[in-house]
Write a structure and sequence with these properties.
Helix content: 40-55%
Number of domains: 3
Radius of gyration: 29 Å
Low-confidence stretches: 1-37
Number of helices: 17
Structural class: alpha+beta
């Protein structure tokens, strides 16, 4: 009898356990169904937010952000119970429950970051008459914008940590959609935070400021983009900009001794002309040095030094014109996003005299900067348009004011060296400096490959950076004007492309060998701020292809995160990253 009673007791325990599991499963199923409905709405709202950013529509972005916050809150509430957390520990299915929870939380954080971006945008839109921005409003929103940028960076890391290969299709797609939302908003938030930190002071919130805009020409390459051909000085006060003066490179007389002090490594790698010719101001990867050089040239010409030096190229102007619409030049011609590159980088050197080129560049700079100074362009659209040029290194800034400069030198605007730092511990930098004396870069094709040769037991890896460089110059290129070909004035054959190539390895590296066309090359080398660097000269005749290989010894940890940054070019470079060490050790 006692045994029968025990059996009945265990039977009831089993039935109750099954009942609890059934109720738990039903409860969890209801929760999953609830969350699925909310996340479906989030995916749709995320698309609306991206569309609002693309359109530069603050109202639509605000509405989408508020709706996303509400939906994300409901989804998070649906998952805030012990049953969901227990489900996350179930083998196989658990990662899906975890991913759904993370996606809901991060989309809520994304929605929470949007208002700070909108506050900064409001500082651009609701501004005093004649001002580019409301500097006071911008400064007031700085802390919130900084928090938003930090929050989105954390969201990006949390979402990237999810392994979509372990997830079922619908959940994996949800993770990718959330990542897309972060990828859309994070750069905008970063730009807004940077603008809020820097722009109030730069635009004269506390007194008049002078901004020197240096327009680089990538048709004749320099490390930072191209020769510094045109200069525009703007006066900023209380958010208002006034064009003060323009100058062309021909107005600056070369000097015998450097106009600003440079490290020995810079001279060893790039020659002694960096600070003796104004066209070479962007030849150093240290944009702080470029800023000081440009400031010294301007002070020599005008008698006063600028508070800030800003370097841009026509690709930046193209991005701005895509937002502002066409501008009219003094000739009556229209300059727009479709024709600006050919109009400023190609056609003038084939058909205009030197004086006509100067007049064209001055007119273009005047028209574009006058349109921007009017404050008529949509701020969100401008920030969005500048994302790619900034990522490509086509916009850099230096400030003579130490607090601002500390912010700039560690940001995406800090110049070539800052870009290499930001690319990680395994990042190599490849810089190109024209040796032709003409505008031949439009005919240059470049591919860059990295290859890990050996991973040693002493914590060192040997890595090769290989460049394949080719000339697309036409057979009759020698018939083009001297302003295009260089005319053979610098020891490069007429129609050939001469280029000095410098490769800088990650921090803590050592120089290896350099080969050009399979033969050892006596490359100048230097340690540039703890980075090993080598320079080689290559000459390309029409249709010729040359291969250069630079080898370095780097910390083995860097070999597992190889990356390449390079001089902004006329045509995109093809970059291929090889495998790292992956645990292999060579003797």
């Amino acid at each position: 009898m006692a045994r029968l009673q025990r059996r009945r007791r265990w039977l009831w325990v089993g039935v109750l356990s099954l009942g609890v599991l059934a109720i738990g499963a039903a409860w969890l199923g209801w929760r999953v169904w609830t969350v699925k409905g909310e996340l479906d709405q989030l995916a749709s709202l995320s698309s609306e937010a991206r569309a609002a950013i693309d359109a530069g529509d603050p109202t639509e972005l605000s509405d989408a952000a508020q709706a996303m916050a509400a939906v994300a809150g409901r989804a998070s509430s649906a998952m805030a119970d012990p049953v969901w957390r227990l489900a996350e520990g179930v083998p196989g299915a658990g990662p899906n429950f975890t991913a759904v929870r993370v996606v809901a939380a991060e989309l809520g954080r994304i929605a929470g970051a949007a208002p700070a971006v909108l506050t900064i945008a409001d500082g651009f839109e609701n501004r005093p008459d004649g001002a580019v921005v409301d500097t006071s409003r911008l400064a007031a929103g700085s802390a919130d914008a900084e928090d938003a940028a930090t929050s989105l960076e954390a969201s990006s890391k949390a979402l990237d940590a999810l392994r979509t290969s372990e997830l079922i299709g619908p959940v994996a797609r949800g993770v990718e959609q959330a990542r897309d939302a972060v990828d859309e908003l994070a750069p905008l938030a970063g730009a807004a935070a940077g603008a809020a930190r820097i722009l109030p002071g730069v635009l004269g919130d506390r007194g008049e400021r002078s901004i020197l805009v240096m327009v680089l020409n990538p048709a004749e390459l320099r490390t930072g983009g191209g020769i510094s051909g045109s200069f525009v000085e703007m006066r900023a006060e209380a958010g208002r900009l006034t064009l003060v003066r323009q100058a062309e490179s021909s107005e600056f007389v070369p000097v015998t001794h450097p106009i600003a002090e440079l490290p020995e490594a810079t001279t060893a790698l790039y020659g002694d002309g960096v600070a003796r010719y104004v066209q070479n101001a962007a030849m150093t990867p240290d944009f702080a040095a470029t800023g000081r050089i440009a400031s010294a040239w301007w002070a020599g010409l005008t008698g006063h030094a600028p508070d800030m030096v800003l370097a841009v190229d026509p690709f930046v102007l193209q991005a701005l014109l895509a937002v502002t619409g066409p501008v009219e030049l003094s000739t009556g011609a229209a300059l727009d996003a479709d024709n600006v590159l050919d109009s400023l980088l190609v056609d003038p050197y084939r058909s205009l005299t030197s004086d006509e080129q100067t007049s064209l560049f001055s007119s273009a700079a005047d028209a574009v900067f006058t349109r921007l100074a009017s404050g008529s362009a949509d701020p969100l659209a401008l920030l969005r348009a500048l994302e790619q040029p900034v990522a490509d290194g086509r916009l850099s800034a230096w400030s003579a004011h130490p607090v601002e400069q500390r912010l700039l030198e560690h940001s995406v605007l800090g110049g070539p060296r800052a870009r290499q730092d930001a690319a990680g511990p395994g990042a190599f930098a490849v810089y190109f400096n024209d040796a032709t004396g003409g505008k031949m870069a439009d005919y240059l094709d470049i591919a860059i490959d990295t290859r890990t040769i050996a991973c040693r037991g002493d914590g060192i890896a040997e890595v090769a950076v290989t460049l394949t460089m080719a000339s697309r110059a036409p057979a009759d290129v020698a018939s083009l004007p001297v302003s295009v070909t260089g005319g053979g004035r610098f020891g490069v054959g007429v129609g050939d492309i001469g280029t000095n190539v410098t490769v800088t390895a990650p921090a803590g590296s050592y120089v290896g060998t350099v080969d050009v066309k399979g033969e050892p090359y006596p490359a100048p080398t230097a340690i540039d701020v703890d980075r090993a660097a080598s320079t080689a000269r290559v000459n390309l005749s029409p249709d010729e292809v040359n291969v250069l290989e630079f080898r370095f010894l780097i910390p083995r940890s860097g070999a597992d995160s190889l990356a390449i940054v390079h001089t902004p070019l006329m045509s995109p470079a093809e970059v291929r990253i090889g495998d790292g060490c992956a645990g292999d050790i060579s003797p």
